[in-house]
Design goal:
This protein has about 110 residues and is mostly helical. The protein has four helices and no strands. InterPro entries: Perilipin (IPR004279).
Length: about 110
C-alpha cells in the first residue's frame, strides 16, 4: 500500500482530492458539518475494528507478507512499463492536452489540403 501511495501519480491525485475536500469544507458550512460527522464516524469505526482485526492479521501475517512481496515486484514492473505513473496528475493532463491539440491541428491541416 505504501509503495502505491508513493507513486507520483497516486500521491499527486491524493493531494488534489485532499485540497478540493478542504476547500469545499471551508466554503460550505453545511458540507463542513456533514463531513465532520462522517469523519468522526469513520474514526470510531476504524478504532473499534482495529482491535478485532489485529488477531486475524497476526495469524495471517506470513501470507500477507508473501502477497506484499509479490505485489511489490509487480508494481516495480508496472512502473517500468508505464512511465506516466511517475508523473504528477497535472503533467499528465498537460501532456494529454498537448497531444490532443497536436492531433487536431494535424487533422485540420489534412482536411485543408
Amino acid at each position: 500500500v505504501s509503495q502505491v501511495a508513493n507513486l507520483t501519480l497516486v500521491s499527486s491525485a491524493c493531494d488534489m482530492v485532499s485540497t478540493a475536500y478542504a476547500s469545499t469544507k471551508e466554503s460550505h458550512p453545511y458540507i463542513r458539518s456533514v463531513c465532520g460527522a462522517a469523519e468522526k464516524g469513520v474514526k470510531s469505526v476504524t478504532e473499534a475494528t482495529a482491535s478485532c482485526v489485529q488477531p486475524v492479521l497476526t495469524a495471517l501475517e506470513p501470507h500477507v507478507s508473501a502477497a506484499s512481496e509479490y505485489a511489490s515486484k509487480g508494481l516495480d514492473k508496472l512502473g517500468e512499463k508505464l512511465p506516466p505513473l511517475q508523473k504528477p496528475v497535472e503533467q499528465i493532463i498537460s501532456d494529454t492536452k498537448e497531444l490532443v491539440s497536436s492531433r487536431v491541428a494535424d487533422v485540420k491541416d489534412a482536411v485543408s489540403s
